[in-house]
Write a structure and sequence with these properties.
Layout: H1 2-8, H2 11-16, H3 28-53, E1 56-58, E2 61-63, H4 68-77, H5 96-130, H6 133-145, E3 150-153, E4 169-172, E5 177-180, E6 187-188, E7 199-205, E8 216-222, H7 228-233, H8 236-251, E9 254-255, E10 266-268
Helix pairs in contact: 3-5, 5-6
Length: about 270
C-alpha cells in the first residue's frame, strides 16, 4: 500500500514539490499501521456480527447490530473521520490519498461499516466546496469529526442511473429552500442508532429549473433541525426529545434488505 501511495499515486513526489505544505510523508506508514490495527481489532470482528444480526426497524427506530454504535464512537473519537478534513473545521488536513488508503483498510475489514465514513467524506467535500457560510458553521465541523455522518439521497424508483428523471421538488422559502421529497430509495446509512443526528444530501429540482440533470440541485436536510444557538448551548437533547418520534418515522418508514452486507442500514423515505 505504501508502494502504491508513494510511487503509483505519486504522493512522495507531490510532497517534495510542496503541494501539501509542511506535511511529512514519513508519517504515512504510522497512520496506515494504526488504521490497520483498528480495523483488525475492532472492525473485522464485527463483520460477521453485522451479517448475523442485521438491521432492525421497530416502532420507527432503526437499530444496528450489537457493537456497531460503540465501534463507530471509538472510530470517530480516534480521529479517523477527520484524516483529510479541512483544518479550519477540526480536520487533520492530511492528503486525500492517505484517507483513500485508510478507506481501503476499513472496506477490507468490514465493508458494511466502511460505507458510512465513505459517504461522510463526500458530504464534507460537497459542503466545504459549495455550501454557504451559515451551513458550514452549523454542520461542517460535525461532519468532519464524525459526530454526525452524511448520506446521499439520490435514487428514486423511476430514477436510478437516470437521476434526471427524479420527481423530488423544492420550493424557495424566506431564508432557505424546502424540499418536498418523492420516494427516495437505497439510502445507505439513511437512519441508524450510531449517532445523534444524520446530515442528508438530497437531490431535488426547483420549480423554475430546466429538465434533465442540468436542472438538479443539492439540498442539505438534517434528520433533526438545528441552529447555531442550540449548538452553542449544547441543547441537542431537548431537540431530539422534541422531534424524535415524528422525525424517525419521516426519515425511515422502511428498510431494504440485501443478500450481503447485512450490517449496513439502507433506508427508504
Amino acid at each position: 500500500m505504501l508502494l502504491a501511495l508513494h510511487h503509483g499515486a505519486g504522493l512522495r513526489a507531490a510532497v517534495r514539490a510542496g503541494h501539501y505544505g509542511d506535511f511529512d510523508a514519513d508519517i504515512t506508514a504510522a497512520v496506515l499501521e494504526e488504521a490497520g490495527r483498528f480495523a483488525s481489532d475492532v472492525l473485522a470482528p464485527l463483520n460477521r456480527v453485522g451479517d448475523e444480526n442485521g438491521i432492525r426497524l421497530e416502532g420507527g427506530r432503526v437499530t444496528t447490530a450489537p457493537g456497531w454504535p460503540d465501534a463507530y464512537q471509538r472510530w470517530s473519537a480516534a480521529g479517523w473521520n477527520a484524516v483529510s478534513g479541512p483544518e479550519a473545521f477540526g480536520g487533520q488536513g492530511l492528503p486525500l490519498a492517505i484517507n483513500a488508503a485508510c478507506t481501503e483498510i476499513w472496506s477490507a475489514s468490514n465493508i458494511a461499516f466502511g460505507l458510512c465514513p465513505l459517504l461522510t467524506l463526500s458530504a464534507i467535500e460537497a459542503l466545504d466546496a459549495h455550501g454557504s457560510d451559515e451551513l458550514k458553521k452549523i454542520y461542517l465541523a460535525k461532519l468532519v469529526s464524525g459526530e454526525w455522518p452524511g448520506t446521499m439521497q439520490l435514487t428514486e424508483p423511476q430514477a436510478g442511473s437516470d437521476v434526471g428523471a427524479l420527481r423530488t421538488r423544492a420550493e424557495r422559502a424566506a431564508t432557505a429552500a424546502i424540499a418536498s421529497p418523492a420516494r427516495k430509495i437505497f439510502i445507505t446509512y439513511g437512519d441508524h442508532d450510531m449517532t445523534d443526528n444524520i446530515v442528508h444530501f438530497v437531490l431535488a429540482r426547483m420549480p423554475d429549473a430546466p429538465a434533465g440533470t442540468k436542472g438538479i440541485s443539492l439540498f442539505l436536510i438534517p434528520k433533526f433541525l438545528v441552529n447555531r444557538r442550540w449548538l452553542a448551548r449544547r441543547a441537542q437533547r431537548h431537540l431530539r426529545q422534541r422531534h424524535r418520534a415524528q422525525a424517525r418515522h419521516a426519515c425511515c418508514p422502511d428498510l431494504h434488505h440485501d443478500h450481503g452486507r447485512q450490517g449496513r442500514p439502507r433506508s427508504v423515505t
